[in-house]
Write a structure and sequence with these properties.
Helix content is 10%, strand content 51%. The protein has 134 residues and is mostly beta strands.
Length: 134
């Protein structure tokens, strides 16, 4: 399960309870990390030749496959990351951002470690990135 960042938690609370405008990002980007971030940010994003955050889109909210009593959104398409790293790095987490570079991290979650190396591909299949409120 993903964790909302401190940034997103504050933005949602201000929007719902204080009538502060919250503009949805036009595009959301999926980033990979070699060192996991926390709700406050940080972590070490993959960098180097060939790596770039990838656009991610979500289906409309529906019953959470793991708990039908709540709603969730799932990524709607496969997302490939291709890179030419040398040496191999181990990807341990992902983050969702509101920009292709820099920007605000919205959520993050640990993932099973995957090696990213020369001509390697890390692929996120449809319905593997889930966002839900608990």
């Amino acid at each position: 399960m993903s964790s909302f960042t401190t940034y997103l938690e504050a933005a949602i609370l201000n929007h719902v309870f204080r009538n502060v405008a919250l503009t949805s990002p036009a595009t959301i980007y999926l980033a990979l990390f070699t060192s996991a971030p926390t709700d406050a940010g940080g972590g070490t994003e993959v960098s180097g030749s060939g790596y770039a955050r990838q656009v991610i889109a979500f289906d409309a909210p529906a019953a959470d496959p793991a708990d039908a009593t709540r709603q969730a959104v799932l990524n709607s398409a496969a997302i490939p990351f291709v890179t030419t790293h040398d040496p191999v790095v181990s990807v341990v987490a992902y983050g969702l951002f509101d920009a292709a570079t820099l920007g605000n991290m919205l959520t993050w979650a640990p993932i099973p470690a995957s090696d990213l190396g020369v001509n390697a591909e890390v692929r996120v299949d449809p319905s593997k990135i889930k966002q839900a409120l608990s």
